[in-house]
Amino acid sequence: MPAKKFQKLLEPFQIGRVRMRNRIMKTGAGTSFIEENGQVGDRIIGFYEALARGGVGLVTVESTGVDFPTGIHHPSVQLHFENDSYLPGFQKLTEAVHKQNCPVFIQLFHSGPWHPQSWSGIQPIAASALPKSDLPHQHLDEPRAVSKEEISELVGKFADAAERAKRAGFDGVEVNTSSTHLINSFLSPGWNRRTDEYGPQNLENRSRFLVDIVKAIKKRVGKDFPVSVLLTGVEYGVSDGIILEDACGFALLLEKAGVDAIQVRGYGYRRYEFIHPGPEQLLYPEPIDPLPPELDWSKNGAGAFVPLAEEFKKILSVPVITVGRLNPEMGEAILRAGKADIIAMNRRLLADPDLPLKVAAGRLDDIAPCTGCLYCWSRRRQNLTIKCRINSRLGRERELILTPVEQSRKVLVVGSGPAGMEAARIAALRGHKVTLLEKEAGVGGLLPLAAMVKGARIEDVPLVFKYLQRQLLKQNVSIRKGNEADVNSIIAFQPDAVIVATGGKPIVPDIPGIFQKNVLLMARLHKQLKFFLRFFNSYQLNRLSKIWMPVGKRVAIIGSGIQACELAEFLVKRKRQVTIIDKEEFPGQEMVPEETRNSLLDWLGRKGTVFYMNAHVEKIVPTGVRFLTKEGEEKLVRADTIIPALPLLKNMDLYHSLGNAIKEIYAVGDCAKPGLIPDAVNTGAEVGYKL
User: Fold this and answer.
1) pTM listed for this prediction
2) Among 445, 455, 469, CA closest to 539
3) How many CB atoms within 10 Å of residue 537?
4) Among residues 168, 513, 628, 630, which is most buried (max CB within 10 A)?
5) What are the structural domains, with CATH classification, of the chain?
C-alpha cells in the first residue's frame, strides 16, 4: 500500500548522471553546525549522516562560501571552501553520506550584499553601489559595485570551489542565486544599475555572470558532473524586482548553458521578507494585503511556490525542484500532476530525518511533525546553531544515541506536558517499563491551551502532543489520566526512577485588588479551559470562543511576554479592546522568530491595542487598573476584565518533598526551568537518554 500510495515520490530519479533512490531532496538550508574557522566536524557530519540514513534521495550540504571573508555572512555559522584546507573535513562528510547509499551535493554561493561590514571591516559587494535609501533590505550595509575584473575572478572562484567539491567526493553542486546574495544582485533590477554588459538592459546581460559561472564549472569538472541552480522565481516588496517571466527566461538560458536541474522559490523584502523561510507566515496574524498573486494560498501557505515550478516545467526539459512546507501527500500529488520533478524539504526533515523511510514503510503516524514554529530558522537568524521543537537529537545525532538498556527498570513520570511525554517516550524506547501519571483528564500539559489560543492555521501545536501520545501508546507506556500524584502514592508505586514534569506555577502578582471579581487569574483561566477541553478539542474550542467566552469587552492584560501578546491576539480577533501594561521596556521579548513578533506587534497596534511599557501597576479597582507611566503620570485604564499573563515560575514542590525517599529523581521542563516547548522537549529527552 505505501509504495502504491506514494509511487511517484518513492520512485528513483536522475539529476544528470546522479541517481536518487526517491524524489525527496534535503535543501541546502543552513544549520550553523560548523567548527572553528568554518571547518567541518563531527557535529555537522552526524547531521548529514542521519539524513542519509533516514532514506532521503539527495542531501544538499548547506550554503558554502566560495570566497572569504566577503563571500560569507558570518564566520561562526557558515561553511566556506576557498582553499584546500577544508578538503579533509568535507571528504569525511561525503564518505559518511555515501556509506548510507545516498548522493550528496554542496551548495555554493557568495553572500555579496548580505555580508555585514561590522564583523569583517570590509564593505560588501553587489552588482551596483546603492545608497542605504535604495537598498531593498534597509538593514543591510551599503555595498560597492563589483568591477569587471572582480567578476572574472569570482567566476573562477566558483569553478575552483566546484573542483574542490568533486575532489572531496561530492556528486554535484548547487549554485545559490537567490535571496540577497551576490548573483541575485545581478539578476534583479531592484539591485542592478550597471551600464555595461552585466547590466539590467536585457535578460542575457542580467544572467551573464551566472551563466558564465555555470559554464566555467562545467568546463572545470566536466559536463557529467551535475550542476543545479537555486533561482528566485519572483521578488516581492520591491517595485522593480524579478518577475516570473524574467525567471522563466533565466531558466531557459541556464538550461542552454548546461544546468542539470533548477529549484525555484519566491523571495520578499520589507513586509514580504518572511516569505522565504515560511510562506505561511504571510498569513500571520492576518493575511498580508495583497498576497502574492502568482502563488498558491489554498493550503495556508503550504505549497505556495508550486505554481512557479509548474511554469518552469512547461518550458524546461531538465528536472524542476519545488519547495515550501511540502509534506509527503502534497509531494505525491505535485509529482502526479506533473508540476515538478523533485520535492525538496527542510523543516520536515529537521523534525524527522527518518521521514522517507517511514513513508516507504507506511508508518505515517510515526513521523515526528513539524508544526511550522520556525524556531530553527529563528536561531539561525541569530547566528546560533539550529534547534527543533520536536527533535531533540538535531545536531546531536552522534551524542544522543538510542541504545537499549541492559536492565529494564520501573520508571514513573509525573506530568504529561511535552517534557514528561518526551522523557517517557525515550525511556520506553530504550526498554524501560514506564508509567505516566496525569492529574487532568487529557495529556499535553498546557499545550492544548496554547493550541486553543493559537489556532491551527499557521502553527499547529496539537500535532506535538498528539504525536507524543501516539508514540507512548505504541511503546506500551501506561498512561494514567485523572491521577494526581503525591509523595505517598509515588513511594507506594516503588519506582526505580521518578521524573517530575509537573509544569510551572502561574504567577499571582502582589498587587492590591488582585483577587477582585473582575480579575481572571491564569490558574482560574486554565481550570475553566481544561474543563471545556473535556468535551471539545482545541480546534473546536478555538472556534466556539468566537461565539462566547467569559471575558468582558474591555480587557487589560498585565504582562507583555509571549503569553500576553498571544492572548492579546486571541482577544482582539474576538472583538475585545485590549490594553497591555507591563514593567518591561519592550513587549514580546520571548517570541521567536523576531519577524513573527514584529508582525504581531504591528498588527496589534493597527487593531487599536494600547501598550503601556515601563509602567508600574499600583492597584486593581472595580473599574480597571491604576498604574504609573514611565513618566510618572498616574493613569486609570478602564477594563471589564483584568488578566495577569506573566511567565511561569518553576515548581519544584513535589521534587523536594520526595527528599531521599527516591534514590533516582529528575525534574524536567517548566517545573525546573520555565521556557519554550523546545526547551521542555529537550530536557525530557536528555533524561530519557540518561536513564
Assistant:
1) 0.95
2) 455
3) 14
4) 168
5) 2-381 (3.20.20.70), 410-502+668-690 (3.40.50.720), 522-644 (3.50.50.60)
